[in-house]
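Open question from group meeting: does this chain pack into something compact, or does most of it stay loose? Before anyone orders reagents, we agreed to write out a predicted structure and look at it together. Recording both the input and the output here so the notebook holds the full record.
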Amino acid sequence: MRCPWRPLRAGRTGNDRRPARTAFLCLTFASLLGFVGALPAHAQLVAVAPPPFVPPAPPAPTPTPLMIDQTVSSAATVANLGSTFLERLGTTNGFSRMLRTNPAGGGASEAAEAPRYRTWFEGYGITANNGPLGLFVGDTRKTWGGVAGIGARVAPGFNVGFSVDQSRTSIDVPLALQSATIDLTQLGLNASVDSGPWTWASAVVHGFGNIDSRRDTGLGFATAGYNARLDGVLSEISYYWSQDQNRIVPKAALEYVHARTGSLQEFGGLDPVMATAATVDRMRVLLGAEVGHYWIFDQKILDLSAYGKFVDNLVQNFSDITVSLGSQSVTFQGIGESRYGADAGASASLSLTNTARVYVNYDGKFRAAMQSHQGTVGLELKW
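Structure tokens returned:
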């Protein structure tokens, strides 16, 4: 192999070091060529390519309590509808001694009551809202319903009644982009016993229905359908005091309600979730009084009354709810009312004859984070 460096030109002196330097460079170059030639052929030609780029896998979606706020709201709503029906049984079925034993006015005797049976029909509307509480972002509720009932005086001072309540409730949870509709049927029984100015009365309700929910996921709506059940009992004792055409009726009651909403599986939308059933158990004491006055004119009776109650929720138990999305899940607890609260309302009743009466009622519930307002229009017939 010929060295690439040329020999020393003529005319250079012997002291010039270029020949030695040239010989050293040629030897080094030849050694490198020999090492490269000794390598395998494929090692000389293959270039090492960088590994292909693999994007990282997106994190698994994680469920949050916010995804089923409507379930929490539905369980609380069913319990409240049961309580409302229990307390309304007292007004329409004869817990009010004035309406039951004195159709001719507060001074009339029970013996003057000729009609033995009664029936009533009501239409009502309720608006309610629950503010934020813990992980719950708050909601608004609207209910429309109707009641039909029948009652009888089976013996002097002993009355019984049966009624049916059918309602539809719309729930809106705007901050969670959710809504739900509850169709609920309630069956109610009541009985009352009078002894002098004292009255002891009890009522029992059983309810059942269906809930349809809807959640905006951003890529369509996730929907679900599940059931609702409730059972409740109310026992009340009252003392009827009257003078002239005025009355004061102190009352004390103990109420228990158990409500349950079934498990759900969403369909459609982005990341549909599953949720376990929810239960609510509540026992409370209600202490208050009713005051009223009536007027007689043109053989008609106009009666006005108002009431107030102090509410103490002695026991409130809420089951844990687990929300699942794929392999991920989160568990949290439902919401309840504040320990203490108040109920208040008013009523206007017009007895057209000894056997026909029309009335309007207002009932309000006031808690730390929840308020409810109900208006009722009713007709009662006796025979």
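Observations to bring back to the group:
Residues 102 and 108 are 5 Å apart (CA to CA).
DSSP finds four helices and 17 strands in the chain.
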